[in-house]
Structures are given as structure tokens and as C-alpha cells.
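Attaching the record inline, Q. Sequence:
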Amino acid sequence: MITDAWQGLGVYRSSDLVHWTVQPENLLLVPRSKPSDRTEGHHCDVIVSGDRAFIYYFTHQKGADLDPKLPHSADRTVLQVAELQNVNGTLTADRDKPAYVDLGGK
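Structure, as predicted:
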């Protein structure tokens, strides 16, 4: 289970849906360098495609990503995507790595 902790995304595991173990580090907590992805990730959903999983998440814009020419620039939110990986039992997502998603087109 992944929850929005407002400090990145909390990751929890359970084998019985009663007892939960929290992953020590929140996912998407550390801002990245890509424009519009320089804050922590929020409000996610996970989509599984074949043997791959992708996390779609929102970033709220601030600082260098604000555009004073755009009305309500400080209220702007951007949808992002990253591929999820299981690294030694820890769920990770490299936000700087391009995510190539097959949207089911033929």
C-alpha cells in the first residue's frame, strides 16, 4: 500500500492486511532536477503493465518552476511518471530516469 504522507509517499507491506510493516524511507521524498519535478511526489496511483509497474504522481510547483506570466502559477500541479523497482525488498523509483510506458497502442 502506498499513501500520501505529505513528505513523499509512505510504503507499507502486509501479508494478511491486518499487520503492516512500513518501509523506512518514503518514496519520492527527495526532489529531483527535472523542471516541474523539483518537489516531493504526492497523490499517486500505480499501473502495472506486463511485468513492469509505474507510479503516476503529482508535484506542486514552487520556486524555480513558477512562471510569473501564467495566472495562478503557484497553484499549478504537474503529473509525473516513474517506473517502480524492487531493490532488495525496498520499493524505489528513479525519477530522473526516462519512463517508457506502453499505453496499449498497436
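The beta strands are 2-4, 9-13, 21-22, 42-49, 52-60, 77-87, 90-93. The CA atoms of residues 20 and 103 lie 33 Å apart.

More tomorrow.
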